[in-house]
Amino acid sequence: MTKISGIGEKELVRYIIANSKEIIPDDTAIISLNDSNLISTCDMLIQSRHFPENMSYFDMGFKAVTVNVSDLAAMGSKPLGFLLSIALPKDLELDSFKEIINGVLKACDIYSIPLIGGDTNEASEIIISGTALGLCDKPLMKNSYKKDDLIAITGDIGLAALGFNLDIEDNIYTKKALKPRARIKEGEILKKYGATSATDITDGLASELYEIKQDGFGFMIHEDLIGISDEYKKIASNLNLNYLDLILHVGEDFELLFTISRENIEKLPIDYKVIGVVNDSDVIEITLENGLIEKIENKGYEHYVSE
Prior knowledge:
Layout: H1 9-18, E1 29-33, E2 36-46, H2 47-50, H3 57-75, E3 78-88, H4 94-110, E4 115-122, E5 127-136, E6 150-153, H5 159-163, H6 172-178, H7 184-192, E7 197-200, H8 205-212, E8 218-222, H9 223-226, H10 230-238, H11 243-249, E9 256-260, H12 262-265, E10 273-279, E11 284-287, E12 293-295
Parallel strand pairs: 3-4, 8-11
Antiparallel strand pairs: 1-2, 2-5, 3-5, 6-9, 6-10, 7-9, 8-10, 11-12
Helix pairs in contact: 3-4, 3-7
């Protein structure tokens, strides 16, 4: 008998999509609504799997909103409302519960997405499931790019991956790991200025590249364009970690990975980094700093198979 640990989360999702007539294989669900589209997404966070031990209760609540709003951002959607379902141990201190809710409400305020309802239940550990709703006339899809489009990201990646391995607080790496932010405004801007596709980086750059890949298209990524600092490499080395593995295969950055034409990228009024180009090689590769070209492995964080 095959166990789900033998195939992983992504294959389970593919099974669900293949057996449903309504699900669109993208970051969110899309339902036509009057002259627009209702964008909806849900994400579940479990304390032992998604919240580092040094994460505050406030930051747990904040992250629960962020991970959902990040999917709206990838579609270029305007936030509409947030639903919160939360299961808690019965011996959790009341002040801790209040901190979680304060984190949720602060995130809702920052992302301009009101908390409009939800549910509560009892569990052996903290479980937070959020549902974010948005509106968008023409959503950004994952795989609508063209050959020669540029591949870009909205900010530095790999910071959270390194931060999860550090005990030092209040540095750029641990802040990214414990206090991630969704790029909701950037998503709306990318849609407005003609991005051809987008997704958010949650499971690692490599995993997201494979998620958006279409047959007949390939991607060439350039290590030197990613902008990996000497400090980053040194810290990773001191921890006996491969810095490229952190950059490519860990995730939790919540930056947007997007494609856009060479003409339109010059018009973008936001910070971004061009890291590669769409080609017709049908493979995903990286040109290393030493000039060698390697195929990027299809691996990243995945439930049921990742430790």
